[in-house]
Amino acid sequence: MDDQLTKDRLTRSAWLDHGLRILARQGADALKVGALATGLNVSRGSFYWHFKDISEFRLQLLQRWQERTTDQVIEGIDTSIVGAARLTHLMKLAFNEDRSLDRAIRSMASTDADVAKMVASVDARRVGYMAKWLIEAGVESQRALPRAEFLYWAYIGQSAVMDPRHSAITELDVDDLSALFTR
Q1: Rounded to 10 degrees, what is the CA torsion of 128, 72, 24, 30?
Q2: Which keywords has UniProt assigned to this entry (predicted)?
Q3: Sequential pLDDT tens for the chain (183 residues)
């Protein structure tokens, strides 16, 4: 098969992965069909083979972001960890991850109502799951939601901290904080 034909027939998944990388590195303004195709060294036709237009692509990017950063994380923790260890594990993952994609999507949400709606849905799901895990760890149900919300606010706010001395947290500190929230 001709190499150019192979290149022009990238999978939908390859386009979405590339789009997420570009979004994280350069922001929403960089999500243009021509620039994306050039970055993948393929024609614009490859894009339109998989997506009706840039709006559909952006929607599928958001869905991919939700799947990877929420659905798969929750499923992985639910199937492999029990009790209070779930919250500790989640905190270690969350507070030590690269947050550039999350910041870019939240930036998009500040000017796009549809993106804001998706982000709000993801936020609610994440907080709800943390509250559920807190209850399973023994926290009274009326205290679980405010604690989960507070932890989530800390997670969201951490990515805004500019001084690198205050933007990271050790695993030992995460263990200590997790214990505070599960008492």
Answers
A1: -100
A2: DNA-binding
A3: 434 444 446 899 999 999 999 999 999 999 999 999 999 999 999 999 999 999 999 999 999 999 999 999 999 998 998 877 888 888 888 888 888 999 999 999 999 999 999 999 999 999 999 999 899 888 999 999 999 999 999 888 887 776 777 667 777 877 777 777 777
Tell me the CB-side half-sphere exposure of residue 7, using CA atoms within 13 A. Answer: 11
Query: What does the alpha-carbon distance between residue 117 and residue 50 come to, in Å, rounded to a whole number?
Result: 25
Phi-psi region of 27 (alpha: psi -120 to 50; beta: other; left: phi over 0): left
The pTM assigned to this predicted structure is 0.84
**Alpha helices by DSSP H, 27-169:** 33-40, 44-50, 54-66, 72-80, 85-94, 100-109, 113-136, 141-158
Rounded Cα distance between 54 and 59, Å, is 9
Pick among 3.40.350.10, 3.90.1150.10, 1.10.8.590, 1.10.10.60: CATH of 1-51? 1.10.10.60
